Amino acid sequence: MTAAAPEPKANMGQPVPRYDAHSKVTGRATYASDMPLANPAYAFLVTSAIAKGRVDGFDLAEARAVRGVIDIVTHENAPKLKESKLFSNGGYAGTTIQPLKSPDIAHDGQIIAVVIAESYEAAREAANRVKVNYTVAAPSATFDSPGTTTAAAKGQNSQFKEDPKVGDFAKAFAAAEIQLTAAYDTPTQHHNPMELFTTSCAWIGDDLVIYEPSQYVHGLKNGVAEQLGIDADKVRVVNPYVGGGFGSRGSMTPRTAIIAGIARRLNRPIKLVATRDQGFTITTYRAETRHEIKLGASRDGKLVALRHEGAEVSSRPDAYCVGGTKTTTRLYACPNVDSLVSIVRADRNTPGFMRSPPEVPYLFALESAMDELAVKLDMDPVELRRINDTTNEPIGGKPYTSRSLMACFDEAAKAFGWSQRSSQPKSMAEGDWLIGYGCAATCYPTQMGPAAARVRLQRDGRTRVEIAGHEIGTGAYTVIAQTAAERLGVPLEKVAVFIGDSDLPPAPVAGGSNSTASTCSAVMMVCDQIRQRLFKAVMPDSLTDKAKETVGISQAPTTQAAKSNRPLDIEKAFDALGVSVVEEYGEWKPEGAPLDSFKAMHSGHVRLVGGHQMQDKIAYAFGAEFVEVRVNRFTHEIRCPRLVGAFAAGRIMNPRTARSQLMGGLIWGMSSALLEATEIDERNARYVNDNLADYLVPVNADVPGVEVILLSEQDDHINPAGAKGLGELANVGTNAAICNALYHATGQRIRKLPVRLENIE
Ligand code: MOS
């Protein structure tokens, strides 16, 4: 085995290579805008140059004069669309700001016109010639800008249900032997997936096909149908491959229904490829956040009081927030806890989910503060976590289904060489470089959603699995194929997986790290239905019906058990049945999902369950991350030569794809500490570095050493697959680990991200 394919430990699947690897690296994989359309017209967006005000009028003469221009669509002649509710309020939309509906401008870069032409070049040329007269108002850009309004998140956003509290924080904090109060800031960030934001629409009579990179084909289908006022069965969304999502493609953006509406009117397929800079304003992003943490502890390191106050920026109409106090108030044992999340409204596009939305900014604050507390206590930061480790979350007292946090710390510390650290700041150096070691915890809720699957087995073992999951670069094809192969006892190479198409049985949004748990649980269930049919066919008549119902079906929760399960002679069973193909369809829902889940799965919005919202338990994946930073004494250049993470996430379906996911997470985590930030021109409420030259993302030279350790963990209380999501686990806490290491290297505590060399004194 190579390093890229770790040897599986207990409760892990085989580290098989990616099912889609070859087609991706050879360019054979077809992304949404690669799909051939018959005689398409091309769209190019015109976006607002102001953040607040209105369009008084257009001068389109020069634009119309460009050869090949077919139409220019503005608010004056746009197709009429119905409204859609915000994703986090039970709808599908990432924003309720509906462009081309009126002359009003709600944010910089809002779509104000769409040029349609015979070629991409003609559309772009004409778009550049569109002249706009604006009435300009002064916008509010961000925190502290004049004109913003602030209010508690609770009551404004149906997804943010509570400000967790327990005990008497104020009293306990006042009486605490050790007290810490500190404020932390995280910046605006944009997803920047490699694949641009594209939409291709083609009507065949009354039926609409949309090719668009999406993390939620069923949501997009239902949302676009709602906006167009047509039956959802008339809409199909197709995207067998998605070139990165990171949360930017989970909710519907306004562009899709606009393009679909124009295509219907023109009676011609339309292809839109928005530019990189337009992607910063026509979709969602991670908003900037502010935090105040108060920790009270006894001298022996036990937390007695914890308060986390967070504030997040959102748009004027939409109360979006990530609200990570649900996690930070439950991570450590503490009898007195208080929290509050507020939303600050500014003249901005609506933010949304991005790469571990609540935990990345909120654990930056908590895990930085824990390190500061360890310094105050003169205690090893790993020991501080051990002292405050808990089997039950402190708010409701519910037990964690499994919690390998300290096991992760111990494994990662050993691999990293934590014992070599001398605890004093500025005590380690090599030549011109100060060396710092730092660590932090990570966790991410185990979430699941209802999913359906169809599985077809042929007599020769060839198997077809259909489920409208999404391949956003995570290895979804591969783990779904592995699940079916193991469960049916057929060779992996005989399994074909079809995902990324809303005509397939529905699956939830590929977000909140639920996909593997949800899709594999559904596929397991349907494979069991097939096994049951086949077993019944070969059972002697003397067996009772009850015995027939259960024989051949694994009662064990993991796919591992399926292999050791009673073997099935498929050919014999097919002969006994007298058929050549067996096909089953099934709908699976996780424990705690509402009764109407299956109805919602087909024609409405499905909410994920899990994490802290389970009835009598709480489910999270855990990890520990250790980093080495080097800071040049003279130039203050910051390097991060080593990232080491140990993670426990229930059953690891495929150690190779899991390692890749976690490695990517560690790198994004480093990026959130040292590189990524969207700069805002506060005068104009405008993103400045809206391109991949100025918006910094990591390259290989930024991460010379990344080590991922997978712990063996079995959890029988989460889902039939036994899997906890890990796609968003590793980039949580890394930012804190890096700032903790920077403190160790320099003696300087930095509480505002990203950290650049000019921030080192
Ligand atoms: Mo992820 S931000 O939940 O797509």
From TrEMBL:
The keyword Cell membrane does not apply. The keyword Endoplasmic reticulum does not apply. Signal peptide: none annotated. InterPro entries: Ald_Oxase/Xan_DH_a/b, Ald_Oxase/Xan_DH_a/b_sf, Ald_Oxase/xanthine_DH-like, AldOxase/xan_DH_MoCoBD1, AldOxase/xan_DH_MoCoBD2, AldOxase/xan_DH_Mopterin-bd_sf. Pfam families: Ald_Xan_dh_C, MoCoBD_1, MoCoBD_2. One of its GO terms (molecular function) is iron ion binding. This is Xanthine dehydrogenase YagR molybdenum-binding subunit. It comes from Bradyrhizobium huanghuaihaiense.
